[in-house]
From TrEMBL:
Keywords from the named record: Membrane, Transmembrane, Transmembrane helix
Nucleotide-binding keyword on record: no
InterPro entries: DUF2069_membrane
Name of this chain's protein: Putative membrane protein
Keyword Transmembrane helix: yes
Sequence intervals crossing the membrane: 12-31, 37-57, 64-84, 90-110
Length: 118
């Protein structure tokens, strides 16, 4: 694989993981009854994931760099829920896995697209 095709694969994986993490957080918070207040909270929880999406689609390296910071709350949320809430361990494990994979793909894209002099 060439570095450009690897970077493109990482970009595609990043977009997919962002979408999967958004879907997981929405499903996690709307599981059971759907109320307007719960839907608003669920949408509010996904804002940090929606913010970098346009820059990721446009291949903006700076967006990939700061998007790594947007993943940390979901990792912490998954870790906290896995420890504190036994009924939600499956959701928490999925959140942890997706957050970690998203972080790895963001860093991988940054490494594959850096200039040779860096």
């Amino acid at each position: 694989m060439t570095p450009s095709s690897t970077a493109e694969s990482l970009r595609t994986a990043t977009i997919g993981l962002l979408a999967a993490l958004i879907a997981l957080v929405l499903a996690w918070n709307l599981w059971g009854e759907i109320a307007v207040a719960r839907a608003a909270v669920a949408l509010l929880l996904t804002v940090p994931l929606w913010a970098p999406l346009p820059g990721v689609i446009q291949r903006n390296r700076r967006t990939y760099a700061w998007a790594t910071l947007c993943v940390i709350p979901y990792f912490v949320m998954g870790l906290t829920e896995a420890i504190a809430n036994p009924q939600r361990r499956a959701w928490a494990g999925a959140c942890l896995a997706l957050a970690l994979l998203l972080f790895v793909t963001l860093i991988g894209y940054l490494r594959m697209t850096r200039a040779p002099s860096e």
